[in-house]
Amino acid sequence: MSTTGSDEDLPAVLTLMPSRLDLPRGRAALPGSEVAASQQGRILQAVTEEVAARGYGATSVRHVIARARVSRSAFYASFTDKQDAFARAHLQASRQLLGLIRDRVADASGAPWRERLRAGIQAYLDGFENAPAYAVSFMVELRGAGSLLLDQRDQVLQRHARNLAWLAEQAAAEDPAAHRPPDLELIGAIGAADELATRAIRVTATGARPDLGSLLAPIADIHEAVLIHRR
Q1: CATH number of the domain that 168 lies in?
Q2: How many domains would you assign to the chain?
Q3: pTM attached to this predicted model
Q4: Is residue 128 part of a domain?
Q5: Long-range contacts formed by 166-173: CB under 8 A, 24+ apart
Q6: For residue 6, is it within any domain?
Q7: Among the four 14, 17, 121, 141, which has the fewest Cβ within 10 Å?
Q8: Does the residue 18 lie in any domain?
Q9: β-bridge mates for residue 228, sequence order
């Protein structure tokens, strides 16, 4: 992991699995709603891992339910098809990553805006480094998963851009050189970060942990260029 600080500073591995995985048997059995939640979490995790390992096109519902250790009927009780499961997994993963970024920026509150910006970018990179299956599935394979996933990716980029807009407003309040740029410029900066990360993830060996540390400086430079007034 290419980040400053000790191992204790690193984020936990991102996971879609529910916190309670071992379903007790007999009289201690969980209620049906908790069993269903556990199965759904395992399916979301499984589709992410299968797509990362096989590619989206080669992954089938049969592969997903085998990895998730659920029945076909349990799968179809929650999802209409493979794409539905993959889209739900992407949405949950994106929420987790956004939460990780927000937490890291909040931890840097009080620091100059450039440091807060870099803290958020480092969290973004750490999230993918810590979760190689997420990185491959949602940065590489998603682009061939159909228009539903591409539309959802655009929505996620807009959420990232809203967070960057919030930071830009803070930067403008404390630094006369900074400003809140138009939304399309913010989306462009986020998209550039995604493209750089995707290129690095795509050339990483299957199952290996991507090394994204070298991307911190160029991504930060792109974001700062967007947030600074043009001369």
Answers
A1: 1.10.357.10
A2: 1
A3: 0.84
A4: yes
A5: 167/105, 167/113, 167/116, 167/117, 167/120, 168/227, 170/113, 170/116, 171/113, 171/117, 171/227
A6: no
A7: 17
A8: yes
A9: 178
Q: How far apart are CA 157 and CA 155, in angstroms?
A: 5
CA distances to 10, 102, 183 from 123, in Å:
9, 9, 22
Tokens read off for 30: 């969980």
178 forms bridges with which residues in the sheet?
228
Cα–Cα distances in Å, from 204 out to 1, 52, 163, 199, 201?
14, 12, 29, 9, 5
Task: List the structure tokens of 187.
Answer: 């989306």
Cβ-contact 2, 219 below 8 angstroms: no
What is the residue-level pLDDT of the chain in tens, covering all 231 positions? 233 333 334 345 677 766 544 445 444 455 566 777 788 999 999 999 999 999 999 999 999 999 999 999 999 999 999 999 999 999 999 999 999 999 999 999 989 999 999 999 999 999 999 899 999 999 999 999 999 999 999 999 999 999 999 999 999 999 999 999 999 999 999 999 999 999 999 988 777 788 899 999 999 999 999 999 775
Residues 6 or more apart whose CB falls under 8 angstroms from that of 211 comprise 2, 129, 200, 204
Per the CB < 8 A criterion, the answer to whether 65 and 75 are in contact is yes
Structural domain that includes position 190: 13-227
